[in-house]
Amino acid sequence: MAGFAATNHKYYRLGYQYDPDPTALQGIPFHADVSSPNYDEYWGDEVQVFHNPRAIHPLPLEAVPDAVQYSYQNGRLTVIAHEGRVLGSMTAVFQILNSDDQPMDDQEAIFL
Length: 112
Hints:
mainly beta, three-stranded antiparallel beta sheet
């Protein structure tokens, strides 16, 4: 959380990642504990670039290397995506309370 996490809170990211299967109708569901010290998130995780096939000055693919990129090549839609690219997500924030609705610290809380 880069030092910005509120005490007595847990953060979970839920969403869909790119599925390279050409017959896939939706992304692959994922979830992650944002509070975990092993969690990584990058600026380009959810960036998607749709290249205009009629652009006078087309944006080079290298301009946004971490993004999922959509373009037409030889009349066919082409998708360039790195493994694990996020198509969309949300972060759920939970405040940890005890039975008296009072905030608990992480040492008191039990996480499933």
